[in-house]
Request: fold
Amino acid sequence: MRLLLSSLFHESPFENLQRHADKVKECAQLFREAAICHAEERCDEFDALTDRVAKLESEADAIKRNIRNHLPRGILMPVDKFQFLQYLGEQDKVVDEVEAALYWLSFRPKGLPKEMRLDFLDLVESVIPPIEKLAELVLMATQFFRSKSGDQREKMKSLVRDIRQHEKEADLLEQELKGLVFRTIQNGLIVFHTVRLVEIVGEIADHAQNASDRMRTMICK
Reply:
């Protein structure tokens, strides 16, 4: 006989998923601070901020492994386990890309070309809301799977649309910034570094949208 997860375990996978989402959210402000620090060449704190993000990434990764290793077989979950794990994977990639962006920034300690700095910081700012909204989305999902409220479902769909819109805006800024790089920078090494950096930052919003899309699929079942 299959039993509801809540009847056998004090802690459900969604509680750990929320903890994971909270770790991801913590990275958002640190990412913003580190990017500003580096762009404005006030880099005394850059390494410390990067280390804090790396620590959060490690903590999030530990939560992810715990979730994957302790999903019990034969237990009825409110969602498909494969879709749940897909969501977890995309959410985890958000913090992975934040860490990757900061490491990539560190490869050029003298900062970005002055022509790029304001536009780069605009791009960074555009990916902050998708990062932060994932924690809100998981909280709403936890409540929804307890209540199956139609109103809650619609609120979640609205939040998913918000995240998708943020991703579109980030994608537009990414493309514009790439064009600016190729029009104004002559040094091939700087072009390569800057374009790849911009792509990594854009991938943060991509994975946030991917996660929200997986959540939308789960609540439609």
